[in-house]
Amino acid sequence: MGIFEPYRAIGYITSGVPFSVQRLGTETFVTVSVGKSFQIYNCAKLNLVLVGPQLPHKIRALASFRDLTFVAYANHIAVVKRAHQIATWSRHTAKVNFLLLFGDHILSVDVDGNVFIWAFKGIEPNLAPAGHIMLGYSFTPTCIMHPDTYLNKVLLGSQDGSLQLWNISTKKMLYEFKGWNSSVTCCVSSPALDVVAVGCADGAIHVHNIRYDEEVVTFFHSTRGAVIALSFSTDGQPLLASGVSSGVISIWNLEKRRLQSVIRDAHDSSIISLHFFANEPVLMSASADNSIKMWIFDTSNGDPRLLRFRSGHSAPPLCIRFYANGRHILSAGQDRAFRVFSVLQDQQSRELSQHHVSKRAKKLKKKEEELKLKPVISFDCAEIRERDWCNVVTCHMDTAQAYVWRLQNFVLGEHILRPCPESPTPVKACAISACGNFAILGTAGGWIERFNLQSGISRGSYVDFCESRSCAHGGEVVGVACDATNTLMISAGYHGDIKVWDFKGRELKSRWEVGCSLVKIVYHRLNGILATVADDLIIRLFDVVALRLVRKFEGHTDRITDLCFSEDGKWLLSSSMDGTLRIWDVILARQIDAMWVDVSITALSLSPNMDVLATAHVDQNGVYLWANQSMFSRGSSIDSYASRQEVVNVKLPSVSSREGPQVEDSNKPEENHAQIKESYDLPVFHQQIPDLVTLSLLPKSQWQSLINLDIIKVHLMRPFPCTQ
């Protein structure tokens, strides 16, 4: 058992599986998949209401009925009532691709063409299917739907473009439609009887009458890509919405038989699902870019506008940092988005504005992604001046200027910081002073400059006259840092030179060489310790005041991706591409814990209270949270739960926080589990000092006023005022 245990994952909205919409009373709910779990949102405000259990494999299909959710994963179907799995259907021999709610039954279709019929009234743990249909060997199903008013009938589309109408009661095929020589990707029923819309891989939409096998109308997309999703409007407007793999949503007018409007930048990735709400001019769309959006048709020209949305990173985060005393996490991703995630309330998460990107993109006829700032490679923040001016500075990939942000308003600041305008080079490192007034920028050309955050004006540069050219370092600046009293500024160059400057006078005070190329530095302001990462995979700790090496940590076998000090400076956390997260005790000069995850950590941050660790991983769009067991267990020492030199295999946290510890220690699993039990069964801390009062197990309201006990007694001794 390690110090940090999986807690939960945040930032996941939806994945590449079509959602399921159902109406309960006056409210509408949508069920979406997020990897191996699912989430249910209330469509009124798109607030999260329920998170499903963690399943063994990724979800492939969803269906819902009242408080039941049917989830297909691998060859199985899980039946979940609210958040508890009550049954598992296992009869398929191939992966299940589709689920269809059909009255009191669920139809499941696998890749081999097997259709099983399941009755879910009176569910048993391992219920046998009520029926089975075997499709033809040459028929590869790609979609399934039920035509309205067709009793016991389902329509299946195939990869070769044909469609088949089956009676599931008699288990016989009634009719086969020849199709259009293009793979059928989706099929939906229209409000008009006997009419369905069929989407094909060639981008064509065929509105077809299945009773007479006649074509009603055909639409063609101007943009390339297969038609992935279709939906008919049911509020009286003759509209058909279609979504393609390029992320474009098209609205077709069925009466006029022409294209009415196009939402070009609806999503950044392929459309997964579309759904018109019953008797409402509202369209919901989901995409593989990790977002759900709702569009309302209330404009004079009939074009839809964005009503509300929920989104997360569409590409993996590059940098993360705790903010607001651990309540929020700042995250910068490869998708050019800068986001704030709330650890406590999911609906408070949002993306920081970059000044009317949507309007500018529409005016210039460009994609929003082209107008957004390039991905952030480094940033720093300071909470002390949040109410006064911008308190976040960001460095962007291949960008010769840095940008400031005002977190109080969640918006990009008005100033752009341009160091060395005579010879601009990309900004590589940044830091904000402890007072929150200044930002220090380091560039790829070795230039370091100080700016005032309130005015955005340069306040001088740091120059080492010993260098061949007028700059701070001979090579790229890999990191800058400031001490707690604005006395010293520390900088590190790529060639292994570390320099200490006078913050105010900008004069070089001292320097030393590490001996190899530096990759990253992290400075702890309270104890004055500088941690450096070199390309020899060794972590070195320097005392900036004493100018000497004080610690050296070895153990990683691949590139070290990130470092993080604990708030008290006693721990140093490091992550590497070898998949390990190692915790080093700075005082004891040894490793106290190590864990291995199958997806390497790229960024990490420890909350100020040291109770939660946040990590970002390779090819993962979310942020993963880990709970510090030393803050919540009753063990008397770290030795009771730390693995020391042993590396513990740990699974990534799931979306649901209800899952228990997910540890797989290949060496001594029984010992570790016994160790866990011991750590939780330890008695209350013994008093180390005579007459010491233990207060940690009592509510805060019972002991927070004890330090003012004398003042309270004086107030209570005052005579009460006379009353008439």
From TrEMBL:
Residues 30-298 form the WDR36/Utp21 N-terminal domain. Pfam families: Beta-prop_WDR36-Utp21_1st (PF25171), Beta-prop_WDR36-Utp21_2nd (PF25168). One of its GO terms (cellular component) is Pwp2p-containing subcomplex of 90S preribosome. It comes from the Eukaryota. SUPFAM superfamilies: WD40 repeat-like. WD repeats lie at residues 154-176, 220-262, 264-295, 470-511, 553-586. Keywords: Repeat, WD repeat. Residues 654-673 are annotated as: Disordered. One of its GO terms (biological process) is rRNA processing. PANTHER family: WD REPEAT-CONTAINING PROTEIN 36 (PTHR22840:SF12). This is Uncharacterized protein MANES_18G125600. It comes from Rhizophora mucronata.
